[in-house]
Amino acid sequence: MTDEMTLRIRPMTFDDLPAVHLIERASFSTPWPPHAYRQELATNRLAHYLVVERRGEVIAYGGVWVMVDEAHVTTFAVHPRYRRQGIGERLLLALLDLSIERHAREATLEVRLSNLPARRLYEKYGFRPVGIRPRYYSDNGEDGLIMTTEPLTEPPMQSRISRLRADLDTGRRLEPIAAPPTEDGLVGAQPALVPGDVGRAAGAEREGPAGKAKP
């Protein structure tokens, strides 16, 4: 198991982008174009991205768009060499912490129906299926499963987060923490859209941040 003391979770910077792009290409069948993350960091006030660093190497990243009181997971990937070591869980906890700090009431995402390991991970962290986006993924037309948490600051979710954090700190992991190292990474597929399209992200289909974007 990766030594947790060597891990650092911090905001993504422009200097991280080469490493992020490498993980991106290793994790997703339709990766975001090289300028997408730069645009997100430079211009999108809704966007918040984190990286996991181990001994100076960026090995995972994830992000959310905080729109009013909803945090929408836009992307989430762990380098194939570092999957199944609890890193994805620590990153997901950090994204939930960030969402709470930004006053989000709930977190939501989309995931491929076929990505059962990712769905199990999200369910473990309080996400529940609430709907389907038909033919959501542009690479193969697969449906996307919409998943949403309970209210983040209410006792049931806070208790879940505290328990899962304690389990990680004591080394208790009861189920796989990441999808197998396939082209779809940990979440689902990458976006057909460039992130930063706030209008479409906030619209009825929400295809910007995580929709036909990632998860």
List the helices and strands and how they pair.
Blueprint: E1 7-11, H1 17-27, H2 35-43, E2 47-54, E3 57-67, E4 70-78, H3 87-101, E5 106-112, H4 116-124, E6 127-133, E7 144-149, H5 155-169, H6 198-201
Parallel strand pairs: 4-5
Antiparallel strand pairs: 1-2, 2-3, 3-4, 5-7, 6-7
Strand portion: 15-25%
Q: Please give the share of residues in helix.
A: 25-40%
Low-confidence stretches: 173-215
Number of helices: 6
Round the Cα radius of gyration to an integer and report it. Answer: 16 Å
Structure explained in plain terms:
The chain is an alpha+beta fold and 215 residues long. It has a single domain (4-201), classed as Aminopeptidase (3-Layer(aba) Sandwich). Helix content is 29%, strand content 25%. The model is unreliable at 173-215 (pLDDT under 50).
Brief account:
This protein is an alpha+beta fold. The chain is built from six helices and seven strands. It has a single domain (4-201), classed as Aminopeptidase (3-Layer(aba) Sandwich).
Q: Main attributes?
A:
215 residues, Aminopeptidase, globular, 29% helix, alpha+beta, seven-stranded mixed β-sheet
